[in-house]
Design goal:
CATH superfamily of the largest domain: Ribonuclease H-like superfamily/Ribonuclease H
CATH class of the largest domain: Alpha Beta
Radius of gyration: 25 Å
Number of strands: 17
CATH topology of the largest domain: Nucleotidyltransferase, domain 5
Strand order of the largest sheet: 7-4-1-14-17
Strand content: 15-25%
């Protein structure tokens, strides 16, 4: 099925007016000190020693982390563009979400005085006897958003309730209008069919249980992964917005733009901020909030040219999967994706 899936990716990319966006999630942990033995005279803060001392935490238990879920697609150059401000009709960046759940079973936050003692107040019950009770800044049971891992319920919450599907629809509706405006300035013979037809994008997702698939069961075509009721509801909501859900080939993370380069790019950007996470007294919640701010900010700063290069590289990977008849890629071949991306951008520039 890897071969068939890779071929479908190539076929769809070759047809004008057919758009595919990718969705995936990634767990990020704050950079932390890494134990290492160094010579006293060495420069700990030098660029070459940074990777020795700072890495992403990969603990298996009690993970304090932020999970991000993002949606991206291939950027669309603006034909013709004359300056950097009008270089792109669409950047390819659709949405990013923080995976959280609402917890109502909270202990609350007690109020403390300047000496560090819990503030108390006296209340009177029916017997007219006063008793001391603790004063809370945040009352127990107050709903609180907490970081969590992806599951089918959260996947549906992100796409349906929190606007993931709507973000996709809005992105392509805006692209549709820009394509029409761009084609209106051209001769009628050069007008693109995709500017007049309704864009019906495909959302490419993997078959992880967190996306609503039962991987222990086999579909009729012999592939593992049958969508559960939650995923069926998501698909129904997506169909209302003319969005098709498509399960990418099993064991093929390299056929997803996020796994192929976006997540690694964001991971390296987080490492550049390692100095902000070294305070041992910093509360964990504040640390994770700062981590999310960095991830979200850097996501929207991604250069569309880089994302276009990743999209071209995805096609190279799909061809290699077909060449190896679905077997594991021992080494990804250099296919000139960056040069093709630069050529596409240059071709759209006004002569």
């Amino acid at each position: 099925m890897r071969v068939a899936g890779a071929q479908e990716i190539l076929d769809r990319a070759a047809q004008a007016g057919l758009y595919t966006c990718d969705i995936d999630e990634k767990k990020f942990c704050a950079p932390t000190l890494f134990k290492a033995m160094v010579h006293p005279d060495s420069d700990v803060e030098s660029e070459e020693n940074r990777k020795l001392f700072f890495k992403m935490m990969q603990r298996k238990k009690n993970i304090a982390s932020v999970m991000a879920c993002a949606i991206v697609t291939e950027p669309t150059p603006n034909p013709p563009w004359t300056c950097e401000e009008d270089k792109w009709l669409a950047t390819g960046l659709i949405a990013i979400f923080r995976c959280t759940v609402t917890n109502t079973e909270t202990n609350g936050v007690k109020k403390y005085d300047e000496e560090g003692n819990v503030v108390q107040k006296r209340i009177y019950d029916k017997s007219e006897r006063g008793r001391l009770v603790d004063v809370y800044e945040v009352e127990p049971g107050t709903p609180r958003e907490e970081d969590a891992a992806m599951d089918a319920a959260m996947y549906m919450d992100i796409l349906v309730n929190r606007g993931g599907l709507k973000a996709i629809r809005d992105y392509y509706d805006a692209l549709q209008e820009k394509l029409r405006a761009a084609d209106a300035s051209m001769a009628s013979a050069r007008r693109s069919a995709r500017a007049t037809d309704k864009i019906e994008p495909r959302l490419k997702e993997d078959g992880a249980p967190g996306h609503g698939f039962n991987n222990r069961a086999k579909a009729e075509n012999g592939t593992h992964g049958i969508p559960n009721d939650t995923h069926d509801k998501i698909a129904a909501e997506a169909a209302k917005m003319l969005i098709d859900l498509w399960k990418q080939p099993s064991r093929s993370p390299e056929l997803n733009k996020l796994d192929l380069g976006v997540w690694y790019h964001l991971w390296t950007k987080v490492l550049f901020h390692y100095g902000e996470f070294l305070d041992p007294m910093q509360p964990e919640k504040a640390q994770l909030n700062r981590l999310w701010d960095i991830i979200e900010s850097e996501f929207w700063k991604i250069d569309p040219a880089m994302l276009l290069s990743i999209s071209e590289h995805e096609l190279d990977i799909a061809r290699q999967v077909i060449e190896r008849k679905g077997r594991h890629l021992l080494k990804e071949k250099h296919g000139g994706a960056r040069q093709r991306a630069e050529a596409r951008i240059a071709a759209a520039k006004k002569k």
